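User: Before I run my own analysis I want an independent prediction to cross-check against. Here's the chain; please return only the structure tokens and, at the end, one sentence I can use as a sanity check.
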Amino acid sequence: MYAYRRTRMVGSNYTTNISIIIPVYNEERRIMECLERSLNYCRKRRWDFEIIVAEDGSTDGTVRVVKYFHSIDSRIKLISFKERLGKGSAIRSAALVANKEYIGYMDVDLSADISEFDRLMEFMENSDLVVGSRILRGNLAPVHRPLYRSFFSYVYSKFFRTLFRLEIYDPQCGFKLFRKDIIPVLFKEIKTTGFAFDSELVVKAFSLGLRVKEIPIIWDHHVASKISVLRHMREMERDLLSIWYEAHMLWLQNGRVYPQKEGSVKARLLFSILSVSKKPRSEAPAQSFIHEEHISVDK
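Assistant: Structure tokens:
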């Protein structure tokens, strides 16, 4: 049993107070198993919880399945977009309406089981954001994945650490836990709506001076994973360079950036190259993510 601080009283016992976000797109086949497992675990642990399914414009029966579970337990909630906005937008929207003390998100395929939040929660007393890691292993067994996925994960990790000089090895892991009070200011800074959303969260957290901790988690690779590494690699590379470019511009303007930021010769050269084609991305208005014309919220 982990010795993290529990802050809400239920009867005579302390309990974990947590919102769990599950982003989904066309997950009719997997969402049932995920919600059954998540609901059973939260009940067993007697958490004060809510499970928010952030549904990103699905065209299958995902919404129908989630509404069925909501009828069984109202602590399962649905945020449903009428059109697809991207994983980052879905998580951002759910995080802004979550109301528990701790807010985390996980993948629907249960590659990291919901029980891993116990492992992350152990470090929350001295952290604002805890990042699960498939690369750091500590005393955990190695993660077994296809060679090509391990290779691309290593390349992305190295690319991220080279660009930002931040010692976070797995910024893209879709298993993270936050303090609720940092959500408004942190998520306001995020512009990425796609898969590099995870990496920008980490960069912005350091820029805001937040306490970030990366810890190993148990990860079970699923062959049926819907993520196409080759298809998304270019998108993530493009977004990562945009994040770095904007941070460098802020640094040049004496703006607030992560403390490891430096103006090396290599950085100046890269900035000059990127300046030929890149322009700073515009910040999406907060209301564009939670608006009656685009989103319905079942609570």
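Sanity check: Confidence is low (pLDDT under 50) at residues 1-6, 285-299.
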